[in-house]
Amino acid sequence: MFAPLLSAFVSIRSWFRSRAALQVEILALRHQLSVLKRSQRGRLRLNSADRRLWVWLSRFWSNWRSALLIVKPQTVIAWHRRGSRWYWRWKSRHGEAGRPTIDLGVRKLIRKISSANPLWGAPHIHGELLKLGIEVSQATVAKYLARQQRPPSQTWGAFLNNHVQQLVSTDFFVVSTVTFRVLYVFIVLAHQRRRPLHFNVTANPTSEWTAQQLVEAFPWGNAPRYLLHDRDSIYEGSFRQRVRQMAIQEVLTAPRSPWQNPYAERLVGSIRRECLDHILVLNESSLRRILKSYFQYYLHSRTYLALAEDAPEPRAIQSPELGAVVEIPEVGGLHHRYERRAA
User: Which residues contact 272 (CB under 8 A, 6 or more apart)?
Assistant: First the structure.
């Protein structure tokens, strides 16, 4: 009894959906005709209302590319990114004011006390400033401490090369969705053959969440000896405690020195240039699915200059006797893999 009713309900719902999609397509085509009529005597001119319409259609209509004829789909994506920049610029200018600036004299005094007393840390200098009637936070004191000269050590390049088999890097980067929501991506990269080991996406990263990602990256006691990351505060608390429990030694980069974590920074740059700069991200699950597809391509197909033009997972050389060259689309068609197969 219920099967015919359910079938009828599904049919009616699909009919309404197809009708709605047809009406949206008609709207898109009529709009393009009006733009062409308006631009008959000169070059094609699109105003801000035209751009907003197509950005809106790209967010709520999955087949918008098939109906777009007057401009390229990449142009609509560029409009959306421009709107995202305008939105965050407006929000930053009209939001609440940031932290008050520290007086130049106070900053010079902190550096002077720090230079004259190299054995003093931020808590000691903070106490002296309070006795002088200067109320600043201990974090502010730590920020403006004079950098002490340390004994010479090996270069970062030598360290990375000497420990490449026992070293992994972690890093965060942000991605903006079509609704201007900011998502955070956490990656774990093995330096040996530049192999991505783990990634995850969240809108609210915490120290506890980051520590759990490290456990998921090394689930069976195969943790590396060294872990390289920056000095972000998210790596404090629960994360640092979990790292000690896993017997991993942390290696911190210098402040404002992303070049000291080059492999992770290069991976983030490749993800943006080869994938995310050409895609509109809808939500967390969408971004997770896109990155999973890209990492499959990166790990098994993409050749890497530092790996003698090979992939992180080595690819066998195929001789011409194996057959003709075939093209295999990957990452939704953004990239392709080429193999030889018999006819």
Answer: 173
